[in-house]
């Protein structure tokens, strides 16, 4: 089963409110937001981060597409010691998705998801590339939180 099919299966099983948007292949936040008709700040950017001092191999940091992650805040949210962004090859191996198409939820389970508090409170819907660069899901934020049960913390870097 493809990552996209897994995501749709999860959303259907959990009775989430969502819609699928088909669009030209795109992984950059600004461009994909324009084609799916959402704001960049609604886009869930999912970053795979390695964190030392925790039980899992990595964590998934989720924040608005127009923000940067603060790694120190990500590490603190999971009570780790030190962290860094996973290389693209490792991120793709862990998620089964190309960088830019990584969804804001783990399909294989067992790894923590840390979502930015400001991102989750900003919009009633979030949007993300759903395991492929040419399909997006726009879903109710409250359903995302209910289904994924992320660790919620302020992990975005301060705006410049």
Could you explain how this protein is built, in words?
Helices cover 30% and strands 26% of the residues. It has helices at 3-13, 29-36, 71-77, 88-95, 117-122, 141-148; strands spanning 18-22, 44-52, 59-64, 82-85, 113-116, 125-129, 135-140, 151-153. The protein is α/β, with parallel strands linked by helices and 160 residues long. A hairpin with a 6-residue loop joins strand 2 (44-52) and strand 3. The chain is built from six helices and eight strands.
Q: Which key phrases capture this entry?
A:
30% helix; 6 helices; 160 residues; alpha/beta; five-stranded mixed sheet; 26% strand
Q: How many runs of DSSP E, i.e. beta strands?
A: 8
Give the fraction of residues assigned to helices: 25-40%
Mean pLDDT: 92
Helix/sheet category: alpha/beta
Low-pLDDT segments, ≥5 res = none
Count of individual helical segments: 6
Strand order of the largest sheet: 4-2-3-5-8
Range of strand content: 25-35%
Quickly describe the structure.
With 160 residues, this protein is α/β, with parallel strands linked by helices. Helix content is 30%, strand content 26%.
Q: What are the SSEs and their pairings?
A:
Elements: H1 3-13, E1 18-22, H2 29-36, E2 44-52, E3 59-64, H3 71-77, E4 82-85, H4 88-95, E5 113-116, H5 117-122, E6 125-129, E7 135-140, H6 141-148, E8 151-153
Parallel strand pairs: 3-5, 5-8
Antiparallel strand pairs: 1-7, 2-3, 2-4, 6-7
């Amino acid at each position: 089963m493809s990552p996209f099919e897994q995501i749709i299966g999860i959303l259907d099983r959990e009775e989430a409110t969502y819609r699928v948007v088909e669009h030209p292949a795109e992984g950059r936040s600004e461009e994909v937001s324009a084609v799916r008709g959402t704001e960049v700040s609604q886009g869930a950017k999912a970053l795979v981060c390695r964190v030392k001092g925790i039980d899992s191999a990595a964590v998934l940091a989720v924040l608005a597409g127009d923000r940067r992650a603060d790694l120190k805040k990500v590490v603190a949210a999971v009570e780790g010691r030190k962290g860094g962004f996973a290389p693209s090859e490792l991120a793709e191996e862990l998620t089964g998705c190309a960088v830019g198409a990584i969804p804001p939820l783990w399909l294989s389970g067992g790894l923590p998801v840390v979502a930015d508090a400001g991102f989750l409170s900003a919009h009633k819907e979030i949007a993300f590339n759903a395991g492929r660069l040419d399909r997006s899901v726009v879903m109710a934020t409250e359903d995302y939180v209910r289904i994924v049960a992320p660790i919620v913390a302020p992990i975005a870097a301060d705006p410049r």
